Amino acid sequence: MRADNHFTPAERRTCMRGSEDSKEVIVQLEDITRSFGDLTVLDGISLEFATDEVTAIVGPNGSGKTTLLRVVAGVLGSDGGSRRVPIETERPIGYLPQDPRFRTQFSVDETLTYYGDLLKASVDVEASMEQVGLLDVRDRRVGQLSGGMRRLLGIAQSLLGDPPVVVLDEPTSGLDPRMREHVFDIVGDIASEETTVVLSSHDLAGATRTDYVVLLDSGTVRRAGTPRELIDAGPNDSLTAAFLDSIPDGPAVQTGTRGES
Ligand SMILES: Nc1ncnc2c1ncn2[C@@H]1O[C@H](COP(=O)(O)OP(=O)(O)OP(=O)(O)O)[C@@H](O)[C@H]1O
């Protein structure tokens, strides 16, 4: 195992949170590994996520972001390591997959009511529409929504039942700059004393608005810290430079042999 891909919870608390111990850790990953066939996609990931934080997982295509988020969300098991979500609520985790599919004939309201009815938790559909700014189009059919509005609908769906852990896979992909800003505004509002948000994004400008950034490459954590810490550790004053500096060998194209050397 490489030293730079293993952040124990204690180390991460030390190196990332300093003395902000009022925040409550509600997801802990320790030494998580996950392979598909002979392809090692997650290679010893230890991270923890606390309330009132937005964490951005960034990394090249194929670096394992979606796989990591699926493990965090509990929709994919790991091969090794442990995942702890020490909270007890009716709906502990809300998850926006990378490519959510909704029935095009349903309205926004009907879609959220449908998903809300599937949950055991009590659900306030109106509040979730309001949270993402979709109240004005509540009667519009999904098939008539713009791509950005559909993404907001996906975020609203993930918020139903007020889960304390909200996992969003690329919530800003394909969105124009104004809509990306809007999504990061929403995400900042969601993170609260009770809630943590974990998202993946290729939008490094947006990632600078989050609390913590994890630079993932080839299934390992290359760097992690506040945006400021990562920028200061990089070659110049940008997260893009820090990102490129953290993957000096270029983007990973995984072929199934990595991790076997
Ligand atoms: N279900 C699966 N079966 C086989 N291989 C998979 C599966 N899911 C992911 N992979 C492989 O795992 C690697 C990491 O994929 P993943 O989607 O986690 O990366 P990513 O960082 O989210 O990529 P992107 O930024 O392009 O969305 C890729 O090589 C992918 O082909």
Write the layout of secondary structure elements.
Layout: H1 9-17, E1 25-36, E2 39-50, E3 53-58, H2 65-73, E4 80-84, E5 93-96, H3 108-118, H4 125-132, H5 147-159, E6 165-169, H6 177-190, E7 196-200, H7 204-207, E8 212-217, E9 220-225, H8 227-233, H9 239-246
Parallel strand pairs: 3-7, 3-8, 5-6, 6-7
Antiparallel strand pairs: 1-2, 1-4, 8-9
Helix pairs in contact: 3-4, 4-5, 8-9
The structure holds adenosine-5'-triphosphate.
Summary?
This protein is α/β, with parallel strands linked by helices.
Q: What is the CATH H-level superfamily of the domain at 1-87 and 195-261?
A: P-loop containing nucleotide triphosphate hydrolases
Ranges where pLDDT stays below 50 over 5 or more residues in a row are: 1-19, 251-261
Strand order of the largest sheet: 5-6-7-3-8-9
| Biggest sheet statistics | 6 strands, mixed
Written account of the structure:
By secondary structure, the chain is an alpha/beta fold. The chain has a domain at 1-87 and 195-261: Rossmann fold (3-Layer(aba) Sandwich). It has helices at 9-17, 65-73, 108-118, 125-132, 147-159, 177-190, 204-207, 227-233, 239-246, and strands at 25-36, 39-50, 53-58, 80-84, 93-96, 165-169, 196-200, 212-217, 220-225. The structure holds adenosine-5'-triphosphate. The site of adenosine-5'-triphosphate has 12 residues, from strand 2 and helix 2. InterPro entries: AAA+_ATPase, ABC_transporter-like_ATP-bd, ABC_transporter-like_CS, P-loop_NTPase.
Q: Which terms summarize this structure?
A:
disordered C terminus; 6-stranded mixed sheet; binds adenosine-5'-triphosphate; AAA+_ATPase; 261 residues; 9 strands; Rossmann fold; 32% helix; P-loop_NTPase; 3-stranded antiparallel sheet; ATP-binding; 9 helices; 23% strand; nucleotide-binding; disordered N terminus; alpha/beta
